[in-house]
């Protein structure tokens, strides 16, 4: 997993609630057996018509909005456990998703793949979306060490929570598996005691 | 100290508390399937690791298998490659695979219980959010991502922060024609699609106790649709009788010893929950969804709400109704329906098929409706055939197919056309879930059967009141 410390980027607004993982990556695109390439089909049915033409009214097809930060409505990532949703967002180029509420499994999958879920209050989410609307070229700074999401142009600052263990993993690029593998003898002892 | 059922099982599986306060949770059973496992196997190969406990790992092919001509090679190349990859990986890592053609093949959450692999008190995971199904047996069962599939294959453990615990109590008797599917759709409509996030749910109360194991599985299955990681029900005599004699269940004296342990799996009288809800079963009608998440549900006799709920976005509400082609405030009764899907890990068990068959026996589907009945497993299919249900389905014009996830998520050929309505016994009504542009209305198997006969949305209670 790649390390994450801080990024500065413009943001892409998606003010829709309950964005489910079937929208992020429809099931029919889950047939690959590697982790790469899912970005091409990110938000497939919102991005493209059935004959493969870009839908001009979808935000990812609007060149005004660019960046590594996606800002979405509450309950982002609900639905299926498919990690492909996190892979697709990452592969497309996102490193941060901001929402006022994340679904549990998606949050875990994102954190396991170097994609940072930033949960802010509904009021902060509203302010961030307004700031993007007023100036799509405005930069945001996401600082994982200090757990802050800031808008340097206006001084707007939102703090966010992250599990302390997950934070260390993200900053250092660690996977859970390295730690779990180190427990082999304790796991075997637990099994024997059953 | 008093404990909830959830606490008892969780605490018994914590190997240690890791730095940062996360629990190292031991996993008793791990189910895998073709879609969410290949990248996890690749991870093992890159690290040169074996599967740590192959006998606790059970594989099947279900998500993208065809439901016709399963004896022939899979036609669609990407699906064929993915199933072939699972075969290769299971051979290489020494795992049992219930492959196409195997008498135990089927939807992963149907085969675990019917083979007796799922037993009270266990921790169970799978790279599939509907793993919550197994909670019906008094297990902690939840869906995981592929990175975690790899972790469990490598170590039989996961690093988890213990979730909060919620109890939902449903007391009273259900109306005729109302099923457990209606109970869970009703609960989700009250709590919303995010109302359970951060929680594990224990379902309790006289209405839950009265349910069969199949019906309990339907309830636990959809826990994830309100955002809960999982749901569970304390095991009781109904549970033990279901497990007794199944292939991988303890047998003879071992079974009796197991039951005496399982009888300790209940929430202590004075245990505290982080959140509690109570519902009255008699107030629940046959449910339908009108929108694009499972929280957007109403009784068939109610109208689509006039506006988004307080705190919800009107933009999302309007987008959802536009997608569905419904108007705020209207009734869905009488809407013409062209597709009915009876299947999925929510409602494809033998009891579901029996209910539908009994209801439609001697009747014909409406001419314009296409009805797919997809059994959850080979064992369900064979049982249905042995009971003559397949004949009842074909006489009624229903298409009885071979087992798999099928039109629940449209990974195989079983898709609903763009713009068409499908009354479906599955679990998700997301945009495009059953095929690009498809419009899904979630319902119980009885409502689905009644719609198939009428060709339009009807209140199934009418049939019961007549008799």
Structure description:
The complex is a heterodimer of chains A (194) and B (467). Chain A is of the alpha/beta class and 194 residues long. Chain A contains eight helices and eight strands, in the order ββααβαβαβαβββααα. Chain A has helices at residues 21-24, 44-47, 84-92, 104-111, 122-134, 164-172, 176-181, 184-193, and strands spanning 6-9, 11-14, 69-72, 96-99, 116-119, 140-143, 148-151, 156-159. In chain A, strands 1-6-7-8 form a four-stranded antiparallel β-sheet, with no helix packed on it. In chain A, helix 3 (84-92) links the parallel strand 3 (69-72) and strand 4. The mean pLDDT of chain A is 96. The longest helix of chain B has 17 residues, at 77-93. With 467 residues, chain B is α/β, with parallel strands linked by helices. Helix content of chain B is 32%, strand content 17%. Chain B has two domains: 1-285, Aconitase, domain 3 (2-Layer Sandwich), CATH 3.30.499.10; 288-466, Aconitase, domain 3 (2-Layer Sandwich). Chain B has helices at 5-12, 38-47, 77-93, 108-114, 146-155, 180-191, 206-209, 213-221, 237-243, 252-262, 314-324, 350-360, 378-386, 389-396, 445-454, 461-466; strands spanning 14-17, 23-26, 29-32, 57-60, 96-98, 123-126, 140-143, 157-160, 164-171, 199-204, 230-232, 275-280, 287-289, 297-299, 339-342, 370-373, 399-400, 421-424, 439-442. A five-stranded parallel β-sheet of chain B has the order 5-4-3-6-7. A five-stranded parallel β-sheet of chain B has the order 17-16-15-18-19, covered by helices on one side. A four-stranded parallel β-sheet of chain B has the order 11-10-9-12. At the A-B interface, helix 4, helix 6, helix 7 and helix 8 of A face helix 2, helix 3, helix 5, strand 8 and helix 11 of B.
Core attributes:
heterodimer; A: 194 residues; alpha/beta; 4-stranded antiparallel sheet; 4-stranded parallel sheet; 8 helices; 8 strands; 16% strand; B: 467 residues; Aconitase, domain 3; 2 domains; 5-stranded parallel sheet; 16 helices; 19 strands; 17% strand
